[in-house]
Specification:
Strand order of the largest sheet: 1-2-4-3
Radius of gyration: 21 Å
Number of strands: 8
Shape: globular
Oligomer: single chain
Helix content: 40-55%
Order of helices and strands: HHHEEHHEEHHHHEEHEEH
Amino acid sequence: MMDDYRSSFDPGFRIDRLSRAALAVLAREYQLAAHLQDRAGMPQVLVRHGGKAMREIAIAEWMGASPVYTRRMRRALRFEGDGVDAIFKGMQFDVGAPHGFLDFRFRLNDDGSGEFWLPYCGALMDVEPMGEQMVVGMCHEIEDPTFDATAVATNPRARVRPIHRPPRVPADRQPHCHWRVRIEPGEKPLEEIALTRRIAASRLARLAIPAPPPDPDSGGLCDYAGPFDADMQLEDFSRPTLALIAEEFCTQGHLLVRSFMTALAERWGDEVAREIATQQFIGIAGLAAERLLAEERILGGPASSAAGRDADADLDLIAKLFQLHPAFHPRAYVDFHVERPGGAVRCWIGDSEAFAEGDAYSWFSLLTPDAAHPALDTIVRAVNPRARCRTERISAARVAWSVDIDASAEPAPEPPALALAKMSKGATFRFVPRPRV
């Protein structure tokens, strides 16, 4: 068991070897990274096709993916039921509500209804400076159908309705928003959209992620079959369960990519979907890399800074960063390998479920054996701006690349797609555990 990954590079490293505390941090980073994908993708839709189209794509993306991954998490954590308490459990493990950045608080009422409210909403903080139209677009036009779509995965007669929501009046109103959830027996059951059914039919949606072997010495919950806990935090779970949660958060991110790209392709064709998803991948790949490097409980935080490091140490850090990066999890979907031959890093992905979907709607469809994708350069740039990825040929690989550092090369500039993603307050957000009430 490892408290972090400051030790020497290990080609056989797995995230379930991290300590319980470190896994809680890593899982939260994976959850936030999947959420921030939209900060890298949606602006690309906005500048090409306008605000109305962006909102319609966002609605389709989340309605397409969230019921699918909510059911996955219900199975993974073994919680059942069709009441508001089960809906709230699902929301606690939804990348649409990353812990702290969207500070969801919950209450179950005696009449079987429930309420949730956000003392702090990072998504609102991102859009509020852009004006009332953007706030209404997110907090009304997008949230109304997507909240119900998330709830319908638990109960098709669930309804999520605002008590109050932005635009904030007065401007500093607290909490940022407040919602009520009820089960309405007399209401017509909501039906999933066609895109949801299409996403549910993918190999990714049906992927079985093997649970790590139990570790009775680690402490913590092995599932969420017990009562709803409004103050639940990831640290409450066992080490093997946290490893499973982390992999499921990455799965949620990839399901959102599938839903996003499919929605784009249905409207504008595959080439537009690939073009926008490429920019999304570049932006979030670099942002997730920078956040992982900054976390002390993962790769050492400030101790991993460039001061005093040589090229060999940078390559070790790059190799470990690739092993941890959420783009290459879950391993049951992505047969990903990292090696350290001499003065380089070599990465390759073997034949795996990620290449067997039969369509072009994933980041893996953007990876080719002929050229290293620019998103890969954005990852290594987070460690050393003179690091570069170059395509490799490995017989067992579908795609492969190596990384080397040329001290004489010009430092790579920050890609515009990364700069755009980093405009979100999520780029610098730091989670602070809240005390139990």
